[in-house]
């Protein structure tokens, strides 16, 4: 029988009140609190906390506090990822962010989702769908990336966009819902 964590990571309905998941979220909250309390003159401590929170993070990652996430351990960061102030990642499913990617202020990445039908939501079960962001992507401030989305390499997402579907490589996309505006040449 699968644990609730195994169900969560497999994208199956799971109980978020499970003891192990609650403990994992509490760990992430304590680490993000410590990260958010670091000062700009503590880059080594900030880097240590990022590695502890997100063990699969590449070198040269920089996060401007405050930052929030559900678990941290489900986030994979390439090298030289930059997240500006107030980024949020709900990582109930794997979230992969490629090397050289820039996230503007208040970017929100949601791998978490809930059932559409009210009677199913009343059960308290949740689910997740992985999010993948390619290398050298720039996501403008205030953009929201929805569950299950893949953003291609080198693409740019306009500020304030709501990305509900996949975006190919090498395009500028914007809007609500986000759509391709033009190729980047």
UniProtKB/TrEMBL annotation:
<dbReference type="InterPro" id="IPR011004">
    <property type="entry name" value="Trimer_LpxA-like_sf"/>
</dbReference>
<dbReference type="InterPro" id="IPR018357">
    <property type="entry name" value="Hexapep_transf_CS"/>
</dbReference>
<keyword id="KW-0012">Acyltransferase</keyword>
<keyword id="KW-0808">Transferase</keyword>
<keyword id="KW-0677">Repeat</keyword>
<comment type="similarity">
    <text>Belongs to the transferase hexapeptide repeat family.</text>
</comment>
<dbReference type="InterPro" id="IPR024688">
    <property type="entry name" value="Mac_dom"/>
</dbReference>
<protein>
    <submittedName>
        <fullName>Nodulation protein L</fullName>
    </submittedName>
</protein>
<dbReference type="InterPro" id="IPR001451">
    <property type="entry name" value="Hexapep"/>
</dbReference>
<feature type="domain" description="Maltose/galactoside acetyltransferase">
    <location>
        <begin position="5"/>
        <end position="59"/>
    </location>
</feature>
<dbReference type="Pfam" id="PF00132">
    <property type="entry name" value="Hexapep"/>
</dbReference>
<dbReference type="Pfam" id="PF12464">
    <property type="entry name" value="Mac"/>
</dbReference>
<dbReference type="InterPro" id="IPR051159">
    <property type="entry name" value="Hexapeptide_acetyltransf"/>
</dbReference>
């Amino acid at each position: 029988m699968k644990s609730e964590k195994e169900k969560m990571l497999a994208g199956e309905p799971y109980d978020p009140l499970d003891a192990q998941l609650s403990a994992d979220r509490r760990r992430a909250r304590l680490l993000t609190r410590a990260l958010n309390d670091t000062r700009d003159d503590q880059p080594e401590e900030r880097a240590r906390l990022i590695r502890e929170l997100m063990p699969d993070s590449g070198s040269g990652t920089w996060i401007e506090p405050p930052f929030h996430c559900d678990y941290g351990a489900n986030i994979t960061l390439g090298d030289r990822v930059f997240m500006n102030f107030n980024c949020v990642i709900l990582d109930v499913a794997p979230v992969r962010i490629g090397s050289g990617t820039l996230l503007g202020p208040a970017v929100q990445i949601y791998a978490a989702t809930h059932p559409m039908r009210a009677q199913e939501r009343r059960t308290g079960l949740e689910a997740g769908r992985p999010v993948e962001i390619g290398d050298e992507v720039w996501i403008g401030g205030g953009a929201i990336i929805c569950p299950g989305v893949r953003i291609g390499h080198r693409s740019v997402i306009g500020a304030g966009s709501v990305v509900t579907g996949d975006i190919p490589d090498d395009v500028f996309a914007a809007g609500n819902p986000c759509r391709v505006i033009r190729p980047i040449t």
